[in-house]
Write the C-alpha cells for this entry.
Amino acid sequence: MSDGPDLWRPDSRAWRHTTKQQLAAWRYGHAVKNRSFDLLVVGGGLSGVAAAVAASRRGTRCAIIEESHMLGGQASTSAVAAFDITFAYEVLLNGYGLWGEIVDRLRIVYDSLGLAMNTARYRDDSLAANPVIIDRVLGEMVKEAGVSVFRRSKVLDAGTARVGVSVDTDRGVFSGKYVVDATEDGALLPLLGADHRVGNLVFRDGDLGAGSADRVSIQDITQAVTVQYYPGGLPDDLRVPEPPRYMQFRREFLGTYPYDPSGARVSDRGFAGYRATPDLSGRVAYTGSQWEQVTRTSLNYLNDFPVQASYLLDKDRQLQDDRQATLKTLALLHFLQQEVGAPWSVATDEGFAAITRPRRFADLVQFENVLKHFPPRVYMRESRRGIGIDTLTAKSIFRHKNRTPARWYSDVVAVGTYPPDLHGGRAEEDLEDDLDETFLDKPTTWREGPFGIPSGCLIHAGIPSLLLAEKNISVSRIVAGATRLHPTVVGIGEAVGTLASISIRTDSHPTEVSSLQIQTSLLRNGAFPFHSAIKGLERTDSDFATVALAVIRELVPTFQADCAVGERVLGVERGVARTIGKDILNGAASWDK
C-alpha cells in the first residue's frame, strides 16, 4: 500500500484533472543552488501568491517558497474551497484587483468544463472551486508574472542580515532584500525572533512573558476534506472503518447530519449544499439552489476541533491535535457511510495523492487509502500575528449596523467585509488586555460590511526587512476573525506585494512609502481599496485609476446610486474625478509604474 514505512505512493486517479505543467511543478523536488531575489515570499497560499504576483508584475525579482506541492493554502491544501464571501458585495469583492482576476480565471476554466462555480450555501450567488483547479489557475498566474516558485521546500531557519534576510530550506539558502511571512501559521515570525502574538499572549524578544499557552484558547482547527457522492455504491477501498473515539465524536453529529445547518433540508445531501463544490467527475452540473443534486462537497461543518495557543508553539502538540481533528473527520465519514447509509467518501481526483508524500500518522495505517486523499494541512483559522507599525483592533472595524461600512480613512490599502467570526477562543479572558479589547467590541449579531486595513498592519515594527501577509498581519484576535477569509487575504497580499515593490524600486524603507503611493500603484493595476463600488466603473476602463484615486482619497463628492444586484454602490461625477485624479497621477510618475 505504501512506498515505505513513512510514505504514500501516488494514486493515478489524482492526476485526472491536472495539466502537464501542474504535474511537472508538483513533482519537481531537486536541490537548488543558493538563490538571491529582491523579495522572498514564504508561503504559497492565496495571500502569498497575490503578494508575489503583485510584486513581480511591478518588476521585482520574486520567489515563493512553499512547503507543499500545491499553491492556494486554505483554498487548496486545506480544502476550504467553498469561498467565504459576503453576498452583499458582489461588485466590490469580485470586480476588482487580483481576487477579481482569480475569480474571472476560475470561471473561464469551469465554463470550459461545462460546470458552474456558484454551487455553495444553497445560493446561486455563491462561489466555490476545486483545490486542483485553484492550484492550476494560481500556477498559471505566477508563471505568467515571472515568479520563481519552489514547491516542496521546507523552511528550516531564517535570519536577518545588515541588509536583507536569508531563509534556509532543505533545498538551499535563499536571500532577499525583504521577506513576506505568508505562511498559514506565521511560522517565520519565531524563526526571525520577531515580536508577535499567539492568542492573547505577546512574545517580545523571544520571551513569552506571563501566561501559559496551554490555558489560552485560540480558534478551532478543522480537518476539512473534499468528498464525493458515489451513486453506484462506495468503492471498497474508500470505506472508512470505525475510527478511535468514534462514539465520542458521534454525539456531535447525531440530530444534525446529514441535514443542513438549519435542519430544514432533510436529505442525505442536505449538509452537502452548504460547502458544495463543482463535481469534476462530470456526472452532474448544479448550482447552489439545486442542493438535492450535489455530488461533491467539503466536510467543514461540525468537525471543528478546539485547540490552545500551545498548538502554534509546540510541534508535538500540533501533531497530536491534528491527529484528533483527522479522527473527527474520519468519524464523520464513517457516520455518513454506516449510520446514514449514504455513499459519501473522499474525492480521489483533487490532486492531493498525485505525488509521493509523507504519511501523516503512522498509527492510522488502516485508513491510508482514504487519508492519502485528505489535504496536506488542517485548516488553521488563527495563526501567529506579527506586531506591526499599526495594530487594527475591533473598535476600528466595528459596524454599527449589518451591511454598513466601519469608520473609514483615506489611507486604506486593503478591504475586508466579513464579521468577526471566532470559532473558539470566545471567552472574555481569551482577548488581549493590552489592546483594551472586550466582547463589547464584538457584536452579538451578524454584522458584515466593509472595513479598511492600513499599510502599517503589514509592516513589522521591529524587523525592517519583514512584511506580513495572510493571517499573520498586525491585528487583534477579534479582527483576525474577520480578516482570514479568501478575498481579504488576497487583497492583503496584493497590497504587501505592491508595498514591497515600491520600497525596493525607490530604495525606501516600507515605513517611508506613503499610502498614496501604494493606492496609486494598486489602482493602476485594477485594485480598488474602498468601501463601495462605483457604478459603471470597471477595472479595465482607461480612466479607472484616475477616477478611483479621486474617490478613495475623498477629493470628490459621491452619491448613492441604484444597482441591479442590490449592492450599495456610489455614483460620482466622472469627468471631475478624472481631472482631479489625473493631476495626482501625473505627480506620482516618478515613483510609480
Remarks:
- The radius of gyration is 23 Å.
- The first helix runs from residue 20 to 27.
